[in-house]
Amino acid sequence: MVREEALTPYQGKYRAFEYFYCEECEKEWASANSWANCYQVCKECDLCVYPYKQHRLKQRKGTKKKKTKSHPAELCQRCIDTGTN
């Protein structure tokens, strides 16, 4: 089995919450839809940015699901690679 190089702090197989920082334009953002070793594209300068901090999402029991912003699939590596965008 070939092991992929760790490009992100989180190496689990489930979706994660992550924090991004683009060094080029100094923009910061967070996303609740990321995966291990996947980047998101910076909206400002169009660079691929890997998260600097991640943690696995925890399912809350007995709470209502919050309405969230739509996921920008065109900026997500996993969506781009799987053709979900």
Total number of beta strands: 5
Biggest sheet statistics: 3 strands, antiparallel
Number of helices: 1
Uncertain spans: none
Keywords: Metal-binding, Zinc, Zinc-finger
Protein name: Zinc finger CCHC domain-containing protein 24
GO molecular function, one term: zinc ion binding
Pfam families: Zn_ribbon_3CxxC_2
Describe the 3D structure.
- The chain has 85 residues and is mostly beta strands.
- It has one domain (7-57, 71-85).
- Helices cover 7% and strands 25% of the residues.
- It is built from one helix and five strands, in the order βββββα.
- The strands form two sheets. It has a three-stranded antiparallel sheet, with no helix packed on it.
- β1 (16-21) and β2 (28-34) form a beta hairpin.
- The protein starts with 15 loop residues before the first strand and ends with a helix.
- The relative contact order is 0.24.
Describe how the helices and strands are arranged.
Layout: E1 16-21, E2 28-34, E3 40-41, E4 48-49, E5 53-56, H1 77-82
Antiparallel strand pairs: 1-2, 1-5, 3-4
Descriptive keywords:
85 residues, mainly beta, three-stranded antiparallel β-sheet, two-stranded antiparallel sheet
